[in-house]
Write a structure and sequence with these properties.
With 83 residues, this protein is α+β, with helices and mostly antiparallel strands. It is 49% helix and 18% strand. It has one domain. The chain has 3 helices and 3 strands; from the N terminus they run αβββαα.
Length: 83
């Protein structure tokens, strides 16, 4: 494993990171249970680690936005009212 791969794996422990034989970078989520459809299971097909990091961070932000919206919805009592 090269140093770039190891650095990305340490930076994003929730993702399995690898570089293909053709030199493209990819990452797949380690935990995929109960994910909203708005987030990706796998990101990549990019030529640099910076591009891969940007894709991972954008997807993590989408997941955080989903969770914050969901928790706000539950906290406001709308879930109980809709059941």
């Amino acid at each position: 494993m090269n140093m770039e791969t190891e650095a990305l794996r340490q930076r994003y422990p929730g993702w399995q990171v690898w570089q293909s034989d053709r030199g493209f970078w990819w990452a797949t989520r380690r935990h995929t249970r109960n994910l909203p459809s708005s987030v990706s299971l796998t990101v990549g097909d990019v030529s640099s680690t910076d591009e891969l990091a940007s894709l991972i961070e954008a997807d993590e932000a989408e997941l955080a936005n989903h969770h914050s919206g969901l928790y706000g919805w539950i906290a406001s009592g709308q879930l109980a009212e809709s059941c």
